Amino acid sequence: MDDAHYHEIQQWLLKSQRDLEAAKVLFEHGLFDVVVYHCQQSAEKALKAYLVYQEVILQKTHNLVVLLESCLAFDINFEILRDSAEILTPYATEFRYPGDTIEPEKYEAEEALAIASLVLDFVVKLLPNS
Hints:
Number of domains: 1
Number of strands: 0
Shape: globular
Largest sheet: none
Number of helices: 5
Pfam family, one: HEPN
CATH class: Mainly Alpha
CATH architecture: Up-down Bundle
CATH topology: Four Helix Bundle (Hemerythrin (Met), subunit A)
Order of helices and strands: HHHHH
Structural class: mainly alpha
Protein name: HEPN domain-containing protein
Domain HEPN: 13-119
Helix content: 55-70%
Organism: Woronichinia naegeliana WA131
């Protein structure tokens, strides 16, 4: 892997980590709608880091299940993240705008934090020198 490729992967991981850290801070302030959004973003960027590692041209999607399907082409162990992807995917848009959507509860934000952390840790363990 050349330096530019390694740097790009690291940038995706850094953005993933920052989204997760932001979500943790926002959780302490009870901003659960923003917490779940940043958790989805963290998981999305972690999966995209893996796809960059595999030299896949990234799709412009926030759908974690779609990204997971791409990851599965390289490693079937990603299957264990399917439920996680299905839970987090709606958070990319569901609570972003005013409307009829009920705000997420604290337990949903806690679950989203745990899932985002799981996804990031899973990806990091698969990448060299992370």
